[in-house]
Amino acid sequence: MPESLYELDSPTYRMAVAQFEEAAERMNLDPNLRERLKFPRRTLMVSIPVRMDDNQVKVFQGYRVQHDTSLGPTKGGIRYHPSVTLGEVAALAMWMTWKCALVGLPYGGAKGGVRCAPSTLSRNELQRLTRRYTAEILPLIGPEIDIPAPDVGTDSQIMAWMMDTYSMQKGYSIPGVVTGKPIAIGGSLGREEATGRGVVYTVLEGMKHLKLDPHRSTAVVQGFGNVGSHSARILTENGIKVIAMSDSKGGIYNSKGLDIHRLNEHKSTHHSLEGFPDGDGITHQDLLELDCTVLVPAALSEVITEKNAGRLQCRILAEGANGPTTPEADRILQKRGVYIIPDILANSGGVIVSYFEWVQDLQQYFWKDTEINQKLFEIITSAFHQVRALSEKKKVGMRLAAQMQGIAKIAQAHLLRGLYP
Ligand code: NAD
């Protein structure tokens, strides 16, 4: 019997709660807080009528969920995908809370989503959908309240339309309402590639810890969007050979290493990796099971399950995506000795540089890219070592340690602030 609306439709929400319960149990978390943190603070469900190019009106379902507000405004991406559900958005919002707390940002977690297939919409339809969705969630967002960013199916152009819609309603330009914007209207240098860069910084720290040489290592990356493509490029720049990559249509494999620059060119002309001349086609499933040093899932959630976890052959699993590994698969991988760099740590580079963007927007003072990358490196590697130290001290896996670290900071804030009224 589902305990809440969030659980009705979503294995992802049940997974986020199961991870939370495990950490809460291990930490002996106050039972009152446990109940409170299991559910989001606020949820807004909206219907979004959009005039399509053929003059028909189509209604889309959208959500914005704010999980916790004890440390400051909430922060989290907007997802456009046909499988978006309330429960999935709530799970992603909860993970954002632990992630922001883990890396020490003054934010709680949020997430938004619209159930739609963006690749089937024209640019004008996408713009009308984005503007109406922004107008519908407008009472809940703002630079001091809740700051959206890009996620699956959204990008800097969508953020520009959101920023414009919000600013037009208020009557003046408010760049700090969203992050991941184009540089010309208040975006930050380094934001576009920040999630992938952060993934690679954590992989390099993991390799140092395991005494692995990047120049003798290989990587496989699932997903060729923002996170996957930048992770692959930056892995290659650090001497790691990327032997396989995929997008929603299929994968491409070359044991000698893929030329990521050429793969990028191919993707932008053909809108798919299919037909790339310097590699062989590979199925989604076979790609995950390739023998490699590092596997980076950078697409959707629950792709590593109890069905395939026993067959994975990577030494390090660096989770670029949110929630790519189910709890059952996690247990199998841990038993098999796979070194897991969990999502809330591995992909935190995105929200770290989003935080830099927000600070720059509020101050109207912009930083150099070298400064941004250096600060990102310091924050994410320090979080990596805190999680590693806690995992060794408590004799738990890296995922549990990361969750415990994030939850502890939120619990402390709740206990200090007390319960209103
Ligand atoms: P995106 O929309 O830019 O890219 C997603 C990619 O996944 C696309 O290339 C798509 O073709 C591919 N894909 C979809 N289904 C697939 C499948 N079955 N097999 C292989 N590839 C498939 O999205 P993104 O922003 O790169 O986000 C990817 C993941 O990273 C998501 O889980 C997201 O929540 C997470 N994330 C993103 C950011 C960010 O800054 N964008 C930050 C933190 C975490």
Describe this structure as you would to a colleague:
It is built from 15 helices and twelve strands. Helix 2 crosses helix 15 (398-417) and helix 7 (191-210) packs across helix 13 (349-363). The strands form two sheets. A seven-stranded mixed β-sheet has the order 9-8-7-6-10-11-12. The protein has a five-stranded mixed β-sheet with strand order 1-2-4-3-5. Strand 1 (42-51) and strand 2 form a beta hairpin. It is an alpha/beta fold and 421 residues long. Bound molecules: nicotinamide-adenine-dinucleotide. Residues 150-153, 195, 222-228, 246-248, 284, 298-300, 320-322, 347, 350 line the site of nicotinamide-adenine-dinucleotide. The site of nicotinamide-adenine-dinucleotide has 24 residues, from helix 8 and strand 7.
